[in-house]
Design a protein that fits this description.
This protein is mainly α. The chain is built from six helices and six strands, in the order E-E-H-H-H-H-H-H-E-E-E-E. Helix 1 packs across helix 3.
Length: 168
């Protein structure tokens, strides 16, 4: 059990929090506690977004007003609400990030996507590739499932990122 909670972390004015310990397990437990809090916080924000859209609808003006007052992007509000609804009656992963769930929510089979990502230990980028090529995404306008045939290659411009190359 850590002797220092996050609330006990010292804060230097206008800089970063400080964590000091020489105990390995305290580091692990403090890290896990922070991860758990962040994940819980995102799901709580997603519940707020889902309720907001249920009560006031998904009209752009409403979402933009809320986003402005909440100091976030409208896209984030839509994304969180969508993710919440997608996993409201499904099993969430306890080890994957909220971003994984957001990516999976846009797939044709969110549960399959999140289960596969967990078993295969996919990064969010790997999950995106899997969804694009194996599961498919639901087109927001038509409702049709779309899969892409192709593969990812290293970006020829920067050499760092990856680009999806459609098969002809």
């Amino acid at each position: 059990m850590p002797t220092q909670s996050v609330e006990d972390l010292g804060t230097i004015p206008e800089t970063l929090p400080v964590f000091e310990s020489e105990d390995w397990q305290e580091h692990v437990e403090a890290w896990r506690a922070e991860e758990d809090k962040q994940l819980k916080s995102k799901w709580e924000q997603a519940a707020i977004a889902a309720n907001l859209t249920a009560v006031w609808g998904e009209r752009t003006a409403v979402i933009e007003r809320f986003a402005h007052e909440a100091k976030c992007s409208a896209r984030r509000v839509y994304e969180y609400a969508y993710t919440y609804r997608a996993f409201q009656s499904r099993e969430r992963s306890q080890i994957l990030t909220f971003s994984h769930h957001t990516k999976a929510a846009r797939s044709a089979d969110p549960q399959r996507a999140i289960d596969t990502a967990e078993v295969q230990e996919f990064s969010t980028r790997e999950l995106d590739t899997h969804i694009d090529t194996q599961i498919g995404r639901v087109d927001r306008e038509t409702g049709e499932v779309v899969t892409r045939q192709g593969h990812y290659e290293r970006c020829p411009n920067c050499g760092q990122g990856q680009i999806f190359v459609e098969e002809e």
